[in-house]
Amino acid sequence: MTPIDCTDCYLAIEIGDGVKRALVRHFSRLIGERLAASDFAARDDATRDKLDRDAWRLATRVINDVEAELSGALDETLLLPDPQKSAQEILAMVVGAAAAAVEQKYFQDDLFGFEALVARLRHSGLGAAQPPA
User: Fold this and answer.
1) For position 75, what pLDDT does the model report?
2) What pLDDT does residue 133 have?
């Protein structure tokens, strides 16, 4: 039998739904806190829907950035004593860095970021400002 060259392979990380949900919760909480700090309440369903849409959009951006970063970067992980643990550590590091970068961009982006969300909420009359304490 002729030997078959099996060197054309790689290790990949498939990002699970739990990571995606955790990112959405992270961004929902972050945006909600920033709205509250801006004296803007997210009490009604329509406001929460807009907030959640931004959270999902940011989570998706992080996942896309992470997948691009990890593409082909894990081949040497197979040689480590515990490849699963090493892959999880690599994923945690890359997700953390990508989430921080996406957060920074979101809060600085006047066209599609936090200020645009606040403007949409004000324009639609949703999430009325909280009464003074």
Assistant:
1) 62
2) 44
Lowest mean pLDDT among 33-47, 56-70, 87-101: 33-47
Structural domain of residue 55, as residue ranges? 17-124
Three-state secondary structure readout of the chain:
CCCCCCCCCCCCCCCCHHHHHHHHHHHHHHHHHHHHHCCECCCCHHHHHHHHHHHHHHHHHHHHHHHHHHCCCCHHHHHCCCHHHHHHHHHHHHHHHHHHHHHHHHHHCCCCCHHHHHHHHHHHCCCCECCCC
Q: Establish if 130 belongs to a structural domain.
A: no
132 falls within a domain: no
Burial of 27 (0-12, 13-18, 19+ CB in 10 A): buried
pLDDT above 80 (res 113)? yes
Burial of 130 (0-12, 13-18, 19+ CB in 10 A): middle
**pLDDT the model gives residue 132:** 44
Question: Residue 11 falls within a domain, yes or no?
Answer: no
